[in-house]
Specification:
about 525 residues, alpha/beta, 10-stranded mixed sheet, 4-stranded antiparallel sheet, 18 helices
Length: about 525
């Protein structure tokens, strides 16, 4: 009897506490913002140029985790965003990278390629069906009986499809040739506002010729880097006679204004967050490097990128406040957790490391395999730090795949610059250790290769048929996560959270089921 009474008292206490907690109420609108390559150290370094209504408003009034961890290798804009919105690693959701290699056709294609669906305002045939599990937005659509509106806007297709999921009212991206807002016929609803925008004179298609990126502030304001002796004005043009002009535009901070413009227009015209069921808006912004920038002027350009991003965040928050009310909205901001850096080594300086040539490594490995197993072309492709073998050839010669992979790995690991080689057989069947599990989290059968290469820090990768090299850096970069809005108690938490924690935590706040492969924990500070 005492045990029963105690249980009733405990239940009533929890119920009373819950009723006082505003986080128990479901927000009318959820806004999920991913910022590609956002760095926490840069926010801190550049905050002297920020106003009070963008980053500073979020940091002062939000729940801020100083770092997010993605527990798999080779992060990029597609694999990370898919992880955020599904709460699962690539081994479950299937998006290992922005692009994938089709071994039988010897083709590099989008990870979201789907010949069953045509494009709207694009020739690309894509769909979100490459996502093998559900997303936050999918679960919201199910919970609301299809009544919630869900929109995703991003610079690139993979970002829009990963964040919009299967059930979006629309997922849109900036098409790489004509710069129109494109989508796929997988989504049955076409938003008239976006069609009107694409055909109007304000569309980027018609304005990109007159657009240029130059410093928004006097460059003497951009003084955050203590080792920069000289700072230069710059101006980048995106005229459509230049090669890859749209891609270059999408690597500039001007793309954030383009995303913001269309998102705010849909927010206001579609009355998001004003009906009985919650609505969802997913946006992707860019905070990375401009690949065509002069290396000596990097410090000015990246500071201008963050200054402009701060202004766009302020504009978005004001628009949400005016349309829905920030007190009725749950906003989360997540970095993609990596940064593509163009490092400049002073002339005459000798560094550790060297240059890793994948094509030479492939040739040497194939010669060794020929000497061991016979004169055949055993290797199909080197792609994205992975080797793909000819499985049919192995089957025809009755060669055990696990043994073959192990033999190749033992040879490769002796090569200069290679730290470790993990085989797919190890990931699926081998003895467990932390390194194998890390690579296993990024492996998806039918998409990933046979061998995963880990290169030593300081080495440069010289890709075949490219003049560019990529330097391997394993140094830590602070990648913040911010929750802001309805029922969020302002706190700064000096703790690294897992990217897989975000989807189940947002789902809990929405009082819906978490995505079906989500395996993270619910963040206790959010409640």
């Amino acid at each position: 009897m005492i045990r029963v009474i105690s249980s009733i008292v405990a239940f009533l206490s929890i119920t009373a506490l819950y009723s006082q907690n505003t986080s128990g109420e479901v927000p009318k609108l959820v806004v999920g913002i991913t910022i590609d390559q956002l760095r926490g150290d840069y926010i801190e370094m550049f905050k002297g140029t920020f106003g009070n209504k963008g980053f500073n408003r979020l940091l002062n009034n939000g729940l801020v985790y100083n770092n997010v961890n993605y527990d798999f290798p080779d992060l990029d804009r597609a694999s990370t965003i898919a992880t955020i919105f599904t709460g699962a690693n690539p081994s479950y959701h299937g998006i290992t990278a922005d692009k994938k290699y089709l071994i039988n056709q010897n083709l590099e294609v989008s990870s979201f390629i789907d010949d069953n669906f045509m494009g709207n305002f694009t020739n690309e045939k894509l769909s979100p069906l490459a996502l093998r599990v559900s997303t936050i937005a999918d679960e919201l659509k199910i919970a609301s009986g299809g009544q919630s509106d869900i929109f995703a806007f991003a610079p690139d297709a993979s970002q829009a499809l990963a964040s919009g999921g299967h059930a979006a009212s629309g997922a849109y991206w900036i098409e790489d040739v004509d710069a129109k807002w494109a989508t796929t016929t997988f989504y049955k609803t076409r938003h008239p506002v976006i069609d009107q925008h694409n055909r109007g004179q304000q569309a980027l298609t018609y304005t990109i010729n007159s657009v240029s990126w130059k410093p928004a502030l006097s460059i003497d304001k951009y003084n955050a880097f203590p080792y920069t002796k000289n700072r230069y004005n710059f101006q980048h043009f995106f005229v459509n006679t230049k090669k890859d002009n749209v891609r270059k535009f999408k690597e500039s901070p001007l793309v954030n204004k383009e995303v913001n413009d269309i998102a705010i227009k849909v927010l206001e015209t579609n009355s998001l967050g004003t009906r009985m069921n919650p609505d969802f808006l997913a946006l992707t912004f860019y905070a990375g490097n401009y690949s065509d920038a002069l290396d000596k002027n990097y410090s000015v350009e990246i500071q201008d990128t963050y200054y402009r991003l701060d202004n766009e965040l302020a504009r978005l928050l004001d628009a949400i406040d005016g349309a829905v009310g920030l007190e009725n909205t749950l906003i989360f901001i997540v970095s993609t957790g990596y940064f593509v850096e163009h490092e400049v080594i002073p002339e005459g300086m000798v560094t550790s490391g060297g240059i890793f040539y994948p094509d030479r490594s492939q040739a040497l490995l194939n010669m060794y395999l020929m000497a061991t197993y016979g004169r055949q072309q055993w290797i199909k492709k080197y792609y994205n730090s992975q080797f793909f073998f000819d499985h049919k050839l192995l089957e025809d010669n009755k060669i055990d795949l696990g043994e073959f992979q192990s033999t190749a790995a033992e040879f490769l690991v002796q090569s200069a610059g290679i730290q470790d080689v993990i085989t797919s057989h190890q990931m699926l069947h081998g003895a467990y250790n932390n390194t194998v599990q890390y690579y296993r989290n990024g492996y998806f059968k039918g998409v990933s290769g046979d061998l995963f290469l880990e290169l030593q820090p300081g080495w440069n990768i010289k890709e075949p048929e490219s003049n560019n090299t990529q330097r391997v850096n394993n140094n830590a970069i602070a990648s913040p996560v911010i929750f802001f809005g309805k029922g969020v108690v302002p706190q700064k938490i000096n703790r690294t959270i897992n990217a897989t924690d975000i989807a189940p935590s947002v789902s809990y706040r929405l009082r819906i089921r978490a995505p079906n492969a989500a395996n993270g924990e619910i963040l206790k500070e959010l409640f």
